[in-house]
Amino acid sequence: MAKAATKRKPEFVSQHIEIGMANIENPNWSRDHDGVKTNVRYVQQPINIRESAITTLAAKGVIDEAQTAAADRFRALWERMGGAGAGALDYSREPVDGGGISEPITVRQLEAGFELRSARDALLKAHGEYAYRLVGYIAGQGMSIHELTETRRQRDTMTDNLRSYLDVLAILWKFSTR
């Protein structure tokens, strides 16, 4: 007796990928040709909704554009600060002619650190230490709200808190004037 054929998922589909459409500003848009059908200001672009908790919340309409921009800036600063770029000086290495001295911390990392400190100060003043930690967990480290909570009520409360914390950052970085 022959076995029934089963449908196979394509290999590129993953449980961590969900494609959605996002409106982004057209990089080729020009004010001179505004109103022309071939020169639209916003275009649709496919994105992975499950890339981070921030993109998921933005795709579902839970956070607005200013909050998303503040979270994206926080994430960029967080990534600029950490990991591979910072390291200790290795005094045992022989200097090579023509080679520069490797800096353990770059100027860009210092600037990111100063901006993150101002973000921490603003969040601390408005909401306390927990605010910076939550934004760091979700926007910086990329953790999901489901990883940090157990019940639906906790998720809803954490989402509301995150929205108010991102409002503080959006005002600080002039993405919003609420």
Structure description:
With 178 residues, the chain is mainly α. It folds into two domains: 18-51, no CATH class; 54-86 and 104-178, no CATH class. Helices cover 46% and strands 8% of the residues. The protein contains six helices and two strands. The protein has helices spanning 53-59, 65-81, 107-126, 129-140, 145-148, 152-172; strands at residues 19-25, 42-48. A two-stranded antiparallel ribbon has the order 1-2. Helix 3 crosses helix 4. The chain starts with 18 loop residues before the first strand and ends in a 6-residue tail after the last helix.
Helix content range of the residues, please? 40-55%
Q: What is the overall pLDDT average?
A: 81
Using the CA coordinates, give the radius of gyration.
Answer: 22 Å
Number of helices: 6
The low-confidence runs, each spanning 5 or more residues with pLDDT under 50, are 8-13
Proportion of beta-strand residues? 5-15%
Q: What is the overall silhouette?
A: globular
Descriptive key words:
mainly alpha, 2 strands, 178 residues, two-stranded antiparallel sheet, 6 helices, globular
Summary of the model, kept short:
The chain has helices at residues 53-59, 65-81, 107-126, 129-140, 145-148, 152-172; strands at 19-25, 42-48. With 178 residues, it is mainly alpha-helical.
